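Batch manifest line 298
LIGAND: NAP
JOB: complex structure
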Amino acid sequence: MRVLVAGRSGQVANALARGAAKRDGDIICLGRPGLDITDDHTIASALDEHKPDVVINAAAYTAVDRAEGDSKAAFAVNANGPELLAKATAGRGIPLLHVSTDYVFSGSKTTAYVEDDPTAPAGIYGKSKLAGEEAVRKTNARHVIVRTAWVFDVTGSNFPKTMLRLAVQRDEVSIISDQHGNPTDAREIANALIAAAKKVHERPQDAEWGTFHFSGPASMNWADFARLIFAVSARHGGPVARVLDITTDDYPTAAKRPANSMLDSSQFHARFGYQAIALEQSLERCMPQWLESLKGGA
Ligand SMILES: NC(=O)c1ccc[n+]([C@@H]2O[C@H](COP(=O)([O-])OP(=O)(O)OC[C@H]3O[C@@H](n4cnc5c(N)ncnc54)[C@H](OP(=O)(O)O)[C@@H]3O)[C@@H](O)[C@H]2O)c1
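JOB STATUS: finished
ARTIFACT:
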């Protein structure tokens, strides 16, 4: 199986590049300028050169707050880009796996979101990602859209790395405790995407096209996530800070965050046979590298 991944330097793309075992086939990760998903010429060249069996779109404009003042760029990458990828893959008979987000929901539900819950994004990022989902659905029937949330990886900028950096500087951190979600290890997303790619490639007749949720198994608020990060950090001799609970109103941001980002991943597990490992196991795995990167100031 030959898989082409759009978005070389991102957390999910990196996890795909790193984690793919040889038995998964060839994983080719391409990013700008060689593959720019807003440029159909670069898409066509990449597809014609690499002739993938499956394409995964892990590229996105993910700066949620910046998107509020930069709607044009967010829609170009998150809506127009997936549409161009869907058009190019559909024209060549290639399935497209597309990564999306909890931000397509308003966050007002009190339990975990399932796939057919009504979407109602509050901000530009969520609106642009929803437009991308709709373009993929309309343009390439052979698609799997995977919504995920609260992503962290050994690489990139993410919540655990920010917490560890803050704990080096301070004894106390104030963290929001009225937003709930499922922290999700990018390596687990990579495994889930490869499981889905294999299924659509090896058994196309049984392929499960459509939209699915995939996230980590534990739901919690950001403050409790911070506490768990520090507990694991302490076991590794890393920095620790006391966590004070604050509310969303205490920490204003340009973009409104969903109060509830919890995703129900049971459909994905039932159809593709993969579910994420325990959160603490993921944190244990990532911690040595995070602590190492703290020394380098990364
Ligand atoms: N991070 C989260 O917490 C989170 C939560 C829910 C869903 N998601 C979704 O998960 C997916 C992956 O997120 P992530 O955290 O891995 O994102 P990330 O670390 O911000 O990486 C995004 C990647 O997209 C690339 N990119 C941006 N514009 C591009 C373009 N026009 N052409 C090609 N590549 C382009 C960026 O490359 P450059 O280096 O060139 O800018 C970057 O490598 C996205 O669909 C995101 O919406 C993320």
